[in-house]
C-alpha cells in the first residue's frame, strides 16, 4: 500500500514515505520528478481539492480525500503547506464507495468505539475544536445527518453546541473546498462518536499553509477549547517547522495531531513536543478475548524520529531508538480505513467510510475531553507517560508493523513503539495527570521587585520536568505530580537560584519563592565597517547567542552599536549586513569573564578574548564581486573580440585548422546565437552551422602573455558550450611560448556563464599562451568572450554611499516606495523601504551608491508626489546622511453635500469650494454618477427602475460542445436550452448576434454604442473589433487590432477606447496597450503595462483606467495581485496598492468615486472568492466591503447607474449561471437583478447593460448578445441631465482655492421626487478624496396630482411586473388618447404610481399581464391629491 513519492524543485520541500527515502538520495530521481500515481483528477468544481481525491496506490482499497495531496501552487509556496490524512474505503477498482442513504455496513459505529475503548458517559460542558482548512458551508447540516442517524443528541449552532468561525474567530469564512470538507466531516463525526455531549468548535483556516492553520489553533484555544484536533501534517518534515511550534504551545489544553499515513515516516506538527502525537491501529471485533476487540498497528500509520524537534522531557527514560530527538507516536486509536467510521458529506452526495490517522487524532481529542479539563500549565501529551497505572489504563498494542526499519520505530511491541506509542486508551484515566499538587510562588530581585518572564523548572528524581514562567507580578504556578522536586528559577541577566527541599502532596499547594540577584553587566560597543577597501560604516544586524532581546542594529550612518551583556560569560556575536548585499557575515566571541564589570567597553577593560573585538569589518564576497562599489580589476591580457569579423583573428591571436577543411573559429556569429555575455562581439565555432559532412579541428590561440609579476594567475572567460557525442573542447596552457601544452579544462555539455581556471603553474612565467581547442563533426558549438589571461581581483571603485529617509512634506509620514536617483548617473538609485525590525530607523529608509563625489544632483520621485530636485555631497569611502521630503497637493472641500428643493421646472445653483492646503499644485477632475431616484411618496428605487427578478435555475454547469450554440443540457433532471427567449418585456432582451461566436472578449460602452475587441472563438484568438448601434440594431466592423488579443481589458476614457493586456499565443500574458480613435478609425500603440495580465478587472475613475489582477500566464497561474492605473495625458502606468489577494476573472467597475471589485478566482489555488473590495485613489490600500452572496468568477461586469453589475459566471463552483447582481455602494450591499436569458461565463460586459459572447461550458463560445435595458448611465462617464458643474477639470494652486457652481435643473426631469447624484472628485495627489453628494428635491406644481394603485391576482396576491398603460386626455366617445401616453411596470409589491398635470384628465388606465385578463379603468387626477386605481387580473 505504499505510494510513489512526489518530489518538487530545489527551492521547495518534499513529501514522500520513508520506504522511498533511499530513493530520494538518487540524483537522477530528483531530476525526473515522476508524477504521483495518486494525483488528484481535475476537480469537478472550482475548488482546490476535489471530493474524491485519488487512489492511494495500485490495487489498494483506499482512496485519498482531495486534501491528501498538494496542488502545484501549494508545493511551490515559500511557506509550507500541510495536507490532510483522510483515506476513504474504495472498491477493487480504486473507486470510493459511496452510499446515498445509509452508512456502509462495514463502518464502526459510535457504540462500537465507545465499547472498544471503554469510554465513560461524559463530556458535558467540554469543547473540542476541529482545525482544518478552507470552507465547508454544510458542516452543521451534514453533522446533523450523522448524529441523527446514530441516535446521538443534536448539536446545533442554535443550541450553542456547534460553532463555526474563521481563523480569526469571525465569520469571514474561506473559499469552499470539497476535499477539505471531507476531512472536516470526518473530524466532526469522530469526536461526536466518542464524546456525544461535547460541544464542537470548527475553526476554518484560510488555507492549509502553516501560518493559517497555526493561527486557527491559537483562535481555538482563545475561544475556550479544552482539546484541539489537527488531522493534517507535513511528512517528511522541513527545517522551518520549528518556526511554527509556538502555535501549538498551549499548556493546559490537549492538542492532538495525526502522525500521518505514509508508514514509518515522522510528520509535523505531531512531532512537536507540545502535541499528543496520535498513531493508528486496525480495530476489529474479537470474541476470543475479554476485551471483545483486537488491535494491531495499522500498516500505513505514521511513526519515526524527528530530524528537527528535540526529545521532550516526558520521553526521557523511554527507549525510542531516537536518543536526542522527538519520537512519535505517543498513543494511538483506530485509523485503518477498512475499520473506519461512516462519514456523511453533501459533496459526496451520501455516506462513505473513512479512516487514516485523520480519524485517530479527533478520536483521542474527544477522549481527552471525556477525561475533563487538563491541569493548568501542564502538557497533556505527558500524561500517558506519567501514568502510574498505565498497564490498566492503556491497551498495549504488540502486533503489526508499518515499515521495514527493523526496530521499535516501525514495529509494534511491548511498551512504547513508534506505530502505536504507549498503546490505545482503556477508559480515560491515562489522559489525566493523576494525583498532583501545585508548586506556587513569586520570583523577585534583591530589592523585592517582581521579575516577569523568569523560568521556574521543577525536576523529579526520574528526570520528569515541569516548567512555568512568571507573570507581570512575578507569580508562577506549577501543577506537578506528587513527589519530591528540585526547582530552579532563572532569568537572563540574573543568577540562578535552586531549591531542593520541595515535596508535593496530592491536592496541596507548596509555596516556593525565589530571589534572583542581577548580574553585573558590561557595555559591548563598537563600529561595523566595510572590510574590503572602502571602509565605510555599515548598517548591520548583530545577534548574540543567548541574548533574549532580539537583534541589535548599528546606526546606518555611523556603523556604531551598543549592547549590554551580563558580566562573567562569553558570548558569540553574529554580524551581517542589514542592507548592502553581498557582504560576508562574521562571527566574534566576546569574553566577559575577566576584568572588572562595568560600563566601560570590554576592549578597554581588557575583557575581550585576544584577537577579537567589538569593531567588526565585514568583507565583500570577492568570489562574485557583485557588492556595490566594487568591480573586477585585472592584470595581464583581456580580449573581448570587439571589432573582429569573419574568420580573421586580431591582436596577436591565431586560428589553426588541423583538419584542413577551412571550418575554424569565427567572429561573426554565423549561427545567429545569443552571445555568452550580452556583448554581440565574441568568438564562436559552430559545428552544426558547418553542416552534415563537416569536420573541425581548430584552435584559437592567444599571443604570449607576460605573467612574470603575477602571483595567482588564472584563465577566465564567458562561455556557452553545447556538447555532443564525439565533440571535444579543451582549454590548454603553455608556459614556454607554445612549445609544450597541457590541458587545464575539458569542456562538457551545458557549461555556460563565467569560467575561471586557476593556473598557478603560470606564475612568474614570461611567455604564457592559451589555446581553445575544438574537434567535432556535425555536432554543436562553443562560444567565447572576455578572455582573461592574468589576474583578477575584486577592488573598490570610486564613490561613496548616500542614505536617509524620505517623508511626506505635508504629514511628515515616511514614504515607502519612493525613488532617489543620482542625476550624474541614473543607474545609481535607491528605493525607500520599510524597516519593521529596527525601531531606531523609521520606514522610508533608502541607500544608494554614488560613483560621483562632491556636489551632486539627486531626483526624488514617488507616485502622485511632486518631483523633488535636490543635491547632496557624497564623500568617497564614507556614508553621507541625506533626508528628503516630497511635496504634494492636498485637497479640501468645503462641504460634503449640497441640496436644493424646487418646484418641477425650476433651477437652483449651489457653490462648492475646492482648496489646497498642501505644498504643491493639484489637478481636480469631476465626474457624475447617478445615485438613484425616489418618486414622491414612493420607496427609493435605483436610478432606472429595473425589471422584476426572474431566476432561471441553472445552478449546475450547462456543458456544451464548442461551436454548437443552442445545444441543450440536463439541469436537475430537466432539459434546458442554452439560449432562452426573453422572459418579459421588462427583463433581458436578445440583441443582434455578434458576427462570430466568441468568449474572453473585451467590451466597452460609449455614446450609446457597444464596442467589442479581441477574444477567442474557443480555439483561436481574434484581432477583430466591431461596434453595435442600437439605432440600427446592427454590428459594424472596425479596424482590426494590431495583434490578436484574447482576454484583454477595454474601456473608454473620454472619447478614446483603450485596450490592454490579454493573451497573444505565448506562455505569458501580454503587457501591450493600444488606443483606438473612433473618429479616425485608427489604432495607436501605447506604453506597455509594467506586467502582463489577461482576464483582469478594469474600471475607469478620475480620467484613469485601472487594471486589476489577472492571469499572468497562459494557464492563468499564478494569478496577479498587481493593480496599475493608466493616465492618458502622460501615456504612463502607475502602480497602486496591490489587490488583497491574487485574483483573475474578477468583476470590477467604478462606483461612488471608488474602484469596486468582486469575485474572481486565485488560479494557483483554484480558489474562487465571494469577497468585495474597494479602492479610493490615493488610499494606502483596499477596503473590504460586503461579500457577494456566492463565489463568482468569470462573470461579465459593468458599472452603471451608480452601482456595479455582474452577470453570469461560475457560481459557488457548481457551474455556469445566468444570475445577475448589483452592488449598491451607498448601502454596501448586493441586490438581485433579473436573471439573464443565457447562462454564460467568460463573456464581455459593459454599461448598457450588455453581455456579449461567452461560453455555456468549457470553450463552447457563443455569439449571443443580451441587454438589460435602463443601465445606460455609465459611472464615471455619466452626464446627468439635471446636474451640472461650472468646471469639471481645473488646477488648484498650493494655498489657493477654486469655487465651482453646481446647478440643479428640475426642468430636465419628468416626475416629482428626490434625485440623488454624486460628483466624483479625483485628484493627482496621493490622498483619497470623497465625492460630493447632490440631492435635488423636486415638488409637483400646484395643478399636479398622483395616480397610483396596486395590481393583484384573483386571490389578492400582488402581481409584480404587470404593465399599466396610462392614456391621457382620453376621449370616451372616440376611444382615442391625447398626444402623450405612459407605460408603467408594477414593482415587487404590485404597486405603480405617476404624477401628472390635471390638464391630462381624463385618464384611461389599462392593466395587463401575460396569461391574465386585462382590465381597464377611467380616472381623473386631482390637484395636490392621490387618485387610487387598483386592478384585479384573473387568469385567462
Automatic annotation (TrEMBL):
It holds the Pfam family Beta-prop_ATRN-LZTR1. Keywords: Hydrolase, Kelch repeat, Protease, Repeat, Serine protease, Signal. Residues 107-437 form the Peptidase S53 domain. Residues 1-32 form the signal peptide. GO terms for biological process: proteolysis. One of its GO terms (molecular function) is serine-type endopeptidase activity. Gene3D superfamilies: Carboxypeptidase-like, regulatory domain, Galactose-binding domain-like, Kelch-type beta propeller, Peptidase S8/S53 domain. Residues 36-57 are annotated as: Disordered. InterPro entries: Beta-prop_ATRN-MKLN-like, Carb-bd-like_fold, CarboxyPept-like_regulatory, Kelch-typ_b-propeller, Kelch_1, Kelch_domain_containing_8, Peptidase_S8/S53_dom_sf, Peptidase_S8_Ser-AS. This is Peptidase S53 domain-containing protein.
Amino acid at each position: 500500500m505504499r505510494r510513489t513519492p512526489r518530489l518538487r524543485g530545489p527551492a521547495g520541500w518534499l513529501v514522500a514515505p520513508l520506504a522511498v527515502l533511499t530513493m530520494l538520495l538518487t540524483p537522477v530521481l530528483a531530476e525526473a520528478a515522476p508524477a504521483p500515481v495518486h494525483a488528484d483528477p481535475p476537480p469537478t468544481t472550482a475548488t482546490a481539492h476535489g471530493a474524491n481525491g485519488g487512489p492511494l496506490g495500485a490495487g489498494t482499497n483506499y482512496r485519498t480525500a482531495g486534501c491528501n495531496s498538494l496542488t502545484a501552487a501549494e508545493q511551490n509556496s515559500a511557506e509550507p503547506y500541510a495536507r490532510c490524512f483522510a483515506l476513504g474505503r474504495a472498491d477493487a477498482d480504486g473507486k470510493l464507495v459511496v452510499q446515498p442513504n445509509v452508512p456502509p455496513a462495514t463502518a464502526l459505529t459510535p457504540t462500537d468505539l465507545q465499547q472498544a475503548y471503554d469510554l465513560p458517559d461524559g463530556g458535558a460542558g467540554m469543547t473540542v475544536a476541529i482545525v482544518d482548512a478552507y470552507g465547508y458551508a454544510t458542516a452543521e447540516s451534514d453533522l446533523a445527518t450523522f448524529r441523527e442517524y446514530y441516535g446521538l443528541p443534536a448539536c446545533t449552532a442554535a443550541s450553542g453546541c456547534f460553532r463555526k468561525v474563521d481563523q480569526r474567530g469571525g465569520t469571514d469564512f474561506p473559499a469552499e473546498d470539497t476535499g477539505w470538507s471531507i476531512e472536516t466531516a470526518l473530524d466532526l463525526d469522530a469526536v461526536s462518536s466518542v464524546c456525544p455531549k461535547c460541544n464542537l468548535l470548527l475553526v476554518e483556516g484560510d488555507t492549509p499553509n502553516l501560518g493559517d492553520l497555526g493561527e486557527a489553533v491559537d483562535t481555538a484555544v482563545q475561544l475556550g477549547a479544552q482539546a484541539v484536533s489537527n488531522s493534517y501534517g507535513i511528512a517528511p518534515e522541513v527545517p522551518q517547522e520549528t518556526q511554527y511550534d509556538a502555535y501549538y504551545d498551549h499548556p493546559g489544553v490537549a492538542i492532538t495531531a495525526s502522525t500521518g499515513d505514509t508508514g514509518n515516516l515522522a510528520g509535523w506538527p505531531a512531532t512537536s513536543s507540545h502535541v499528543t502525537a496520535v498513531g493508528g491501529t486496525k480495530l476489529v471485533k474479537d470474541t476470543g478475548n475479554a476485551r471483545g476487540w483486537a488491535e494491531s498497528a495499522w500498516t500505513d500509520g505514521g511513526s519515526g524520529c524527528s530530524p528537527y524537534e528535540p526529545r521532550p522531557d516526558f520521553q526521557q527514560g523511554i527507549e525510542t531508538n531516537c536518543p536526542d530527538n522527538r519520537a512519535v507516536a505517543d498513543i494511538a486509536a483506530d485509523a485503518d480505513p477498512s475499520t473506519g467510521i461512516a462519514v456523511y458529506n453533501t459533496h459526496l452526495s451520501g455516506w462513505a467510510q473513512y479512516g487514516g490517522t485523520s480519524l485517530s487524532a479527533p478520536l483521542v481529542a474527544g477522549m481527552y475531553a471525556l477525561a475533563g479539563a487538563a491541569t493548568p500549565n501542564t502538557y497533556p501529551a505527558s500524561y500517558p507517560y506519567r501514568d502510574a497505572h498505565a498497564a490498566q489504563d492503556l491497551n498495549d498494542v504488540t502486533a503489526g508493523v508499518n515499515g521495514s526499519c527493523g526496530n521499535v520505530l516501525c514495529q509494534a511491541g511491548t511498551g512504547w513503539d513508534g506505530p502505536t506509542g504507549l498503546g490505545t486508551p482503556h477508559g480515560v484515566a491515562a489522559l489525566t495527570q493523576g494525583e498532583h499538587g501545585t508548586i506556587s510562588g513569586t520570583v523577585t530581585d534583591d530589592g523585592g521587585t517582581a521579575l516577569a518572564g523568569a523560568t521556574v523548572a521543577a525536576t523529579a528524581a526520574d528526570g520528569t520536568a515541569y516548567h512555568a514562567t512568571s507573570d507581570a507580578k512575578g507569580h508562577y504556578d506549577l501543577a506537578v505530580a506528587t513527589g519530591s522536586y528540585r526547582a530552579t528559577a532563572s532569568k537572563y541577566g540574573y543568577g540562578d537560584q535552586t531549591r531542593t527541599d520541595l515535596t508535593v502532596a496530592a491536592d496541596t499547594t507548596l509555596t516556593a519563592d525565589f530571589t534572583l540577584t542581577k548580574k553585573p553587566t558590561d557595555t559591548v560597543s563598537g563600529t561595523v565597517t566595510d572590510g574590503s577597501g572602502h571602509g565605510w560604516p555599515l548598517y548591520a544586524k548583530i545577534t548574540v547567542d543567548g541574548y533574549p532581546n532580539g537583534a541589535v542594529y548599528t546606526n546606518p550612518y555611523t556603523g556604531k552599536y551598543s549592547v549590554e551583556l551580563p558580566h562573567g560569560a562569553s558570548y558569540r556575536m553574529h554580524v551581517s549586513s542589514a542592507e548592502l548585499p553581498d557582504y560576508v557575515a562574521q562571527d566574534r566571541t566576546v569574553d566577559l569573564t575577566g576584568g572588572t564589570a562595568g560600563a566601560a567597553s570590554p576592549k578597554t577593560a581588557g575583557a575581550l578574548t585576544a584577537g577579537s573585538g567589538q569593531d567588526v569589518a565585514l568583507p565583500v564576497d570577492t568570489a562574485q564581486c557583485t557588492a556595490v562599489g566594487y568591480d573586477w580589476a585585472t592584470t595581464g591580457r583581456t580580449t573581448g573580440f570587439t571589432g573582429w569579423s569573419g574568420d580573421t583573428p586580431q591582436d596577436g591571436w591565431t586560428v589553426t585548422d588541423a583538419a584542413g577543411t577551412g571550418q575554424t573559429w569565427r567572429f561573426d556569429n554565423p549561427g545567429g546565437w545569443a552571445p555568452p555575455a550580452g556583448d554581440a562581439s565574441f568568438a564562436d565555432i559552430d559545428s552544426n552551422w558547418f553542416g552534415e559532412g563537416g569536420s573541425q579541428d581548430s584552435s584559437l590561440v592567444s599571443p604570449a602573455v607576460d605573467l612574470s609579476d603575477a602571483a595567482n594567475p588564472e584563465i577566465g572567460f564567458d562561455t556557452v558550450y553545447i556538447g555532443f557525442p564525439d565533440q571535444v573542447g579543451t582549454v590548454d596552457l603553455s608556459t614556454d611560448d607554445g612549445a609544450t601544452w597541457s590541458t587545464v579544462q575539458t569542456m562538457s555539455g551545458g557549461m555556460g556563464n563565467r569560467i575561471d581556471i586557476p593556473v598557478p603553474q603560470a606564475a612568474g612565467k614570461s611567455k604564457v599562451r592559451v589555446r581553445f581547442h575544438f574537434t567535432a563533426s556535425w555536432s554543436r558549438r562553443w562560444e567565447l568572450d572576455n578572455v582573461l589571461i592574468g589576474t583578477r581581483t575584486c577592488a573598490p571603485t570610486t564613490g561613496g554611499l548616500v542614505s536617509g529617509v524620505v517623508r511626506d512634506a505635508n504629514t511628515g509620514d515616511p514614504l515607502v516606495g519612493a525613488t532617489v536617483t543620482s542625476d550624474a548617473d541614473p543607474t545609481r538609485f535607491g528605493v525607500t523601504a520599510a524597516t519593521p525590525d529596527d525601531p531606531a530607523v523609521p520606514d522610508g529608509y533608502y541607500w544608494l551608491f554614488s560613483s560621483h563625489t562632491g556636489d551632486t544632483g539627486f531626483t526624488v520621485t514617488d507616485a502622485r508626489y511632486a518631483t523633488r530636485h535636490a543635491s547632496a555631497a557624497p564623500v568617497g569611502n564614507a556614508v553621507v546622511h541625506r533626508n528628503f521630503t516630497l511635496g504634494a497637493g492636498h485637497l479640501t472641500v468645503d462641504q460634503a453635500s449640497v441640496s436644493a428643493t424646487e418646484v418641477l421646472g425650476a433651477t437652483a445653483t449651489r457653490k462648492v469650494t475646492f482648496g489646497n492646503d498642501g505644498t504643491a499644485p493639484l489637478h481636480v477632475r469631476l465626474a457624475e454618477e447617478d445615485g438613484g431616484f425616489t418618486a414622491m411618496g414612493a420607496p427609493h428605487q435605483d436610478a432606472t427602475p429595473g425589471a422584476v427578478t426572474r431566476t432561471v435555475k441553472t445552478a449546475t454547469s450547462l456543458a456544451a460542445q464548442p461551436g454548437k450554440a443552442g445545444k441543450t443540457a440536463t439541469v436537475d433532471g430537466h432539459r434546458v436550452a442554452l439560449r432562452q427567449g426573453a422572459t418579459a418585456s421588462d427583463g433581458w432582451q436578445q440583441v443582434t448576434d455578434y458576427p462570430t461566436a466568441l468568449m474572453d472578449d473585451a467590451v466597452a460602452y460609449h455614446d450609446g454604442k457597444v464596442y467589442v475587441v479581441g477574444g477567442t472563438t474557443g480555439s483561436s484568438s481574434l484581432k477583430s473589433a466591431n461596434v453595435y448601434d442600437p439605432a440600427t440594431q446592427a454590428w459594424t466592423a472596425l479596424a482590426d487590432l494590431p495583434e490578436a488579443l484574447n482576454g484583454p481589458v477595454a474601456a473608454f476614457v473620454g472619447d478614446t477606447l483603450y485596450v490592454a493586456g490579454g493573451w497573444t499565443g505565448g506562455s505569458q500574458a501580454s503587457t501591450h496597450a493600444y488606443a483606438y480613435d473612433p473618429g479616425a478609425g485608427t489604432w495607436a500603440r501605447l506604453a506597455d503595462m509594467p506586467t502582463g495580465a489577461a482576464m483582469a478587472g478594469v474600471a475607469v475613475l478620475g480620467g484613469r483606467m485601472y487594471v486589476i489582477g489577472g492571469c499572468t500566464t497562459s494557464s492563468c497561474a499564478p494569478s496577479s495581485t498587481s493593480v496599475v492605473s493608466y493616465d492618458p495625458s502622460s501615456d504612463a502606468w502607475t502602480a497602486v496598492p496591490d489587490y488583497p489577494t491574487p485574483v483573475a476573472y474578477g468583476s470590477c467597475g467604478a462606483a461612488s468615486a471608488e474602484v469596486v471589485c468582486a469575485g474572481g478566482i486565485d488560479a494557483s489555488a483554484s480558489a474562487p472568492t465571494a469577497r468585495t473590495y474597494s479602492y479610493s485613489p490615493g488610499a494606502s490600500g483596499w477596503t473590504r466591503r460586503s461579500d457577494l452572496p456566492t463565489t463568482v468568477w468569470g462573470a461579465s461586469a459593468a458599472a452603471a447607474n451608480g452601482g456595479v453589475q455582474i452577470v453570469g459566471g461560475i457560481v459557488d463552483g457548481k457551474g455556469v449561471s445566468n444570475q445577475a447582481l448589483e452592488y449598491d455602494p451607498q448601502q454596501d450591499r448586493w441586490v438581485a437583478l433579473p436573471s439573464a436569458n443565457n447562462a454564460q461565463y467568460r463573456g464581455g460586459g459593459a454599461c448598457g447593460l450588455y453581455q456579449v459572447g461567452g461560453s455555456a461550458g468549457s470553450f463552447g463560445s457563443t455569439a449571443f448578445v443580451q441587454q438589460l435595458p435602463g443601465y445606460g448611465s455609465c459611472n464615471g462617464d455619466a452626464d446627468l441631465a439635471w446636474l451640472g458643474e461650472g468646471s469639471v477639470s481645473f488646477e488648484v494652486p498650493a494655498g489657493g482655492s477654486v469655487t465651482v457652481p453646481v446647478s440643479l435643473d428640475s426642468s430636465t426631469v419628468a416626475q416629482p421626487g428626490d434625485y440623488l447624484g454624486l460628483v466624483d472628485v479625483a485628484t493627482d495627489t496621493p490622498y483619497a478624496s470623497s465625492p460630493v453628494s447632490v440631492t435635488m428635491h423636486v415638488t409637483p406644481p400646484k395643478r399636479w396630482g398622483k395616480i397610483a394603485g396596486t395590481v393583484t391576482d384573483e386571490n389578492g396576491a400582488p402581481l409584480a411586473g404587470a404593465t399599466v398603460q396610462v392614456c391621457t386626455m382620453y376621449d370616451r366617445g372616440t376611444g382615442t388618447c391625447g398626444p402623450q401616453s405612459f407605460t408603467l411596470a408594477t414593482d415587487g409589491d404590485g404597486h405603480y404610481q405617476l404624477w401628472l398635470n390635471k390638464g391630462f384628465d381624463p385618464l384611461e388606465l389599462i392593466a395587463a399581464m401575460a396569461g391574465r385578463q386585462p382590465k381597464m379603468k377611467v380616472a381623473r387626477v386631482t390637484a395636490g391629491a392621490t387618485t387610487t386605481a387598483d386592478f384585479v387580473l384573473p387568469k385567462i
